[in-house]
Structures are given as C-alpha cells and as structure tokens.
Design a protein that fits this description.
Layout: H1 31-43, E1 48-60, E2 63-69, E3 76-81, H2 83-86, E4 98-108, E5 113-123, H3 127-143, E6 160-165, H4 170-182, E7 187-192, H5 200-213, E8 219-223, H6 238-246, E9 251-254, H7 264-267, E10 270-271, H8 275-282, H9 286-319, H10 322-325, H11 328-370, H12 372-377, E11 382-384, E12 402-406, E13 411-415
Parallel strand pairs: 3-5, 6-7, 6-8, 8-9, 9-10
Antiparallel strand pairs: 1-2, 1-4, 2-3, 4-5, 11-12, 12-13
Helix pairs in contact: 4-8, 5-6
Length: about 425
Amino acid sequence: MTTFRPEPADQAPPPDSVHPRDSSSQAPTSVSRLNETIHGFVQRWGAVWVEGELTSWNVRGGAVYGRMKDAGADATLSFRLWSNVRARLPDDLEVGDRVIACVKADYYARGGDFTFTVSQMRRAGLGDQLERLERLRVQLRAEGLFDPARKKRLPFLPHCIGLITGERSDAEKDVHRGAELRWPQVRLRTVYAAVQGDRCVPETLAALASLDADPDVDVIIIARGGGDPQALLGFSDERLLRAVAAASTPVVSAIGHENDRPLLDDVADLRASTPTDAAKRVVPDVGEQRALVAQLRSRLATRLTTRVAHDIAALEQLRTRPVLRDPDQLLQPRAQDVWLLTARGRDTVDRAMDVQSRRVAELRATLRALSPGATLARGYAIAHLADGVILRDADQAPAGTPLTVTLARGSVRATARGEVAESGPEATGTKL
C-alpha cells in the first residue's frame, strides 16, 4: 500500500517560477526574473529624440560612453554610442556641446544597468533648418524633380569631365586620381567654388553655368569630402537644386555624406557615395573594357567557327544524297514520259486537224452549190435596178429603165426596151 503525504501548507514555490507582479513575502521572485521582466518591458519602448548638453564623453574601444543633461536642471541620462554610429558623427563633438540625439532605452538583465543607446546625434540649432529642408524635399518630390524618369543617362566614355570642388581639396585629388587610373586619356576641367558658407551657393551656381555651357564637357561632378549637416546646407539650397535639374549636361553628386545627406543627392542624375566613387562610376576602366572586348571577340570567333563547321557538315550531308550525287538519274525516267506525252499530243492534234479539214471541205462544197456564182457560171445573169434591187418581174422595168446586168465575170449596163412575148404556156417577158 502507498501512503500519500501532503506537503506543508507554508512551503513556497521556487523564486524563478514567481512573476514579479505575483510576488509576496511568502513567494518572492528572483533577481534574474525581475531583471528579465524589466528588460522585456524596456525593450518595448520605442526610440525617442532628446535634446541636451553633453556632460561626459569617454571613448573606450571605439565606442563612446557619455552623459547628457538639460540646461539649468539636474536631470541627466547615460548613453552608449557604438563605433559604427560614431563614424557618422562630426569629429569635433565635445563636452559642453548642445546636441539632439535619437536614443532607445536598454536594460542589462545580468547587471541591472539601465542606459540609452544612441543611433543618431547632431548639434542642436538645426531643427528649424531641417524642418525647412523637409518641406522643400516634399515640394520638389511633388514637382517630379526626384523622379528617376527625368534623370539623364551618363555617357559611356566622357571625353571631358567638369569638376566643381574646393580648391586644393582632397575631393579634387580623389576624382583626378580615380579617373586617370581608370582611363589615362580622360580630360578634366575643374572650376573651384566654396563648398560651405555663404559663398557656396553663388559660386557653385556660377561654376555649374560655366561648365553646362561648354560643349566639350560631357558630365559634371560636384564633389566635397563630406561634413556635418551644417556645412552641407548649401547643397540643399533650392536655387542650386533647380539649376541642377535644369542643366542640359548630366550632373553627379559626390558630396560624400551618408546621414542627413543633402537634397542635391536626390536631384542629381547620379549620386556617388564619395568623390572616388564618382570617378569610378563616370569613367570606365580601360583594363576591364579591354578584357570585355577580348572576351566578346573570343565568343564571336567561337560562334562563327561553330556556325561554319555546322554549315559545312550540312552541305556535305546534302551532297551525299542520290539526287545530288547523280542528277541525271532523276531526269532519265521522266524523259521517256515526256516523249510519250508529246507523241500522244501530236497524234491527237493531227486527228483533230483531219476531221476539221474534211468538215471545212464539205462546208465549202455546200457553200459553192448554194452560191449565186455557180448559177452565173452556167450562163445565167442577174439584173439590178439603179437602187440595187434585183429584177424579178418584167413589170419592174418599163422601157428606158437603166439596168445593171451581173454575169459570172463582171457586169454590164443595159436599158430596158420593152416586153418581149414568147409563144407557149410558160412564156416570160424581159425588158432588155
């Protein structure tokens, strides 16, 4: 017999099995369960934009650990910024700067540490400008300036490239080096312009107009080596954007800035990530083109050889057929048939001709028998009045009537002299 012993009523369940909201002094939850619950709750929070002043900025292993606070208040928060995000930020950020950051809360269940992870950060003061740029972006998109269908195709091999960049800048060197390495014969016409500040837009507009009016320039590159959003505002100016859209020459934007990129990248016919990338995308590589030509020539030779060999084999196969090997063999049996058909046709025609000849002779004899000429040949004559009426009765020709007498051969004129009476019952009279 098995004996069941009930557990004591005051025995508590394991702490890991108790949810924090169901915990009590008799049934407490565990630290790990509490931290995991907090972590799951925090993970459901979305990212938020926050503005504050940097009070700490420590770089450790490529990442940044810092703090920021409100001006004139004691509220602070800790943040962490990974190396890939830091690479996109201005290099001159430092303690004391007022910034705007996109942060997402994070809670480490193992250590119970609460912090914020930064995905974007920029200096404060750009809010109004960014809002204006966003409105301009919406307007230009509605007008179709961002439409891929209106973008011009770049030439395959530009003979002359127009370059707008800062004087003695790294961007100029990168474009020249990249283009000349890929195609040594390429020519570049460089027009210098300020790439930031108040002079940026008017000088860039003047350079663009100059290069666009040059018939030798096949494509224009506007290059700059990146920078913070404040420095790139000139490349989002509406005047410059509309001038680029109206240019007859294809324009390549090579500002070299990934985050908060200027509107020029959207309006230009092609966007390059860096000045070096612009050179690669505008100028073909001579080595690659030579290899491509060699490959195409090899493929063409192979196809021609295969086609010729195939046609030769087909021709040889046709030549081996009996009809082409001895053409007379096909004609000889047909020659006898043609001869027989010809002879049969000739006999048929001859018989038909004989029958018709006899028929014609019979008709000719009948016609001669019925012809007045035969009667005239026996000595008879036909008398006609002056109006051509044949004289059938002597009363038709009183004395003095002119007549025409038709004989077997020819005719004579006569005049009726009166009626001549003959004895006998069948006597007739003529007026000759």
